[in-house]
Amino acid sequence: MVPDAEVQDVLAELQRLRARVPLLSGALAASTDGLVLAHDTPGVEAEGVAALTAAALGVSIRMTDATGRGGFRELLVRGGTGYIATYAAGSSAVLTLLAEDRINVGRLHLEGRRSSSRIGELVDAALERAPRPAPGPRAPTQPPHQPGALPHRTT
User: Fold this and answer.
1) Which of 22, 45, 54, 107 could pair covalently with 34 via S-S, beta carbons 3.0-4.6 A apart?
2) What confidence tens digit (pLDDT) does each residue in 41-84 have?
3) Pick from 92, 115, 99: which is nearest to 34 by CA?
């Protein structure tokens, strides 16, 4: 898990992002398996959004694999009253943004990509410093990782 100091840095990044983009109504950083790392989501159940993000991420990764489009980078969903955007954040986290319908989608992507890159750096650095369990059987090798994309999942 990510240490408290890095969680506070991730939360600060989410808050700066919300300050830069006024039409964002929420921001959440989560692990790829749906555990909340930090959130600034007033009026929204962060744990539920993180779990749904993990489910959507699984489908998105399978779609990019099946169509030969490389590792997952981002997903945009438009609802009747706004957007949900999810961005890969390093090798083991995602950033999910909730935005009002009037948002400039180009600005949403620009700011979301910048913040996801920063959050990915924070989380990946924290995980690299974390103690590792004793080695077990070797896992199958993965295709080379693309910067800014989550690694492919084996099916």
Assistant:
1) 54
2) 999 999 999 999 999 999 999 999 999 999 999 999 999 999 99
3) 92
Is the distance from CB of 64 to CB of 154 less than 8 angstroms?
Answer: no
Contacts of 2 (CB under 8 A, 6+ apart): 10, 37, 123, 126, 127
* First vs last C-alpha separation in the chain: 25
pLDDT surpasses 60 at 93: yes
Unique residue bearing structure tokens 């620009």: 110
| pLDDT value at residue 154 | 47
Three-state DSSP at 92 gives coil
How many residues belong to the chain?
155
Alpha-carbon distance of 22 to 104, in angstroms, equals 11
Q: Give me the amino acid identity at 92.
A: S
- For residues 93 and 68, the answer to whether their CB atoms sit within 8 Å is no
The Cα 77–Cα 21 span in angstroms is: 18
Angle of helix 4-20 versus helix 105-129 axis, rounded to 10: 170
Query: Hey, what are 64's tokens?
Result: 């990019």
